[in-house]
Model the fold of this input.
Amino acid sequence: MESKSQTDVSKFLLLGLTEDPELQPFLFFLFLSIYLVTVLGNLLIILAVSSDSHFHAPMYFFLANLSFTEICLSTTTIPKMLVNIQTHNQSITYRGCLIQICFILLFGGFENFILAVMAYDCCVAICHPLRYMVIVNPQLCVLLVLPPLLMSTIVGLILSLTMLRLSFCKNLEIPHFFCELAQVVKLACSDTLINNILIYLAIGIFGAISLPGIIFSYVRIVSSVLRMPSARAKLKAFSTCGSHLSVVSLFYGTVFGVYISSEVTTSPRKTSVASVMYIVVPQMMNPFYL
Done:
C-alpha cells in the first residue's frame, strides 16, 4: 500500500455527518444555532460573574472557567464544520487538523478537571459551610485551576506533536466533522504503538484523577445531606449541587455513550453522529443547567 510521509500530507477530508446534499442546509443552520446559543449563553455567565460583586465567590470563579472552556471547545470544532458545509469543501489542512486535535485535548481535558474541582467546591460548601470561605480561599482557587490547565496543555501538545512521526496512507478520509485523534491515528500506515500508548495514558490521567474525585465528593455530599435534620435543609443542599450534577451526568454520560456505541457499531457514520453528543451538546446545555 502506498503511503505519504507527514511532509507530503497536505490535507485530510472531514466526511461530516452525512453526504446527502439536501440535508446540508439543515445541518448548517442547526449547528449555527447551537454554536450561537453555546457562545452567547456561556458568555453571559462570564459577564455576569465578572461584573456583579455578588458573584465574586469561588463557585462562580470555577463556573466562569467552565463557561470559557465550553466556548473555546465549541469554537475549535463547529466553525470549521460550518465553513466546510458553506463552501462545499470537506478538506482540512494537515496543520489545521493537528491544531484542532491539540485544542480539543486541551479544552476537553481542562473541562474534565474543572468538573472535578466544582464537585470538590460543592462538597466543601455542603459539608463545611461555616469554614467554606476559609478552606476555598483565592490561593486555593488558583491552585485548583492552573495545574489542571497546565497538565491539559502538556497532554494536548504531546499527543498532537507525536502525530508528526506518523506516515499516512492514501486514504485520508476522517469519518467525523472534526479531527478526532483516534480516527486520525487509524489512518496511519506506520507503527502507531507509541501513539496508542499515549492515548491510553491520557485517558488514564484524565479518568483516574477527575472521575474518582467527583464520585468521592458526591459520596461525602450524600452522606452529609442524609445527616441533616430538616427536609428543607436537605432540599437546599441538593439544590446547591443539582446543576453541577446535571452537567456532570451529561458530560460523562455522553462520553461513555459514544465509547459504548463505537464498540458496538462498526459504522463510522453512526460513531460520527454519536460524537455530536459529547463535543457539541454538553457545551450548549451547560448554560441552561447552570
Residues 49 and 60 are 6 Å apart (CA to CA). Confidence is low (pLDDT under 50) at residues 1-7.
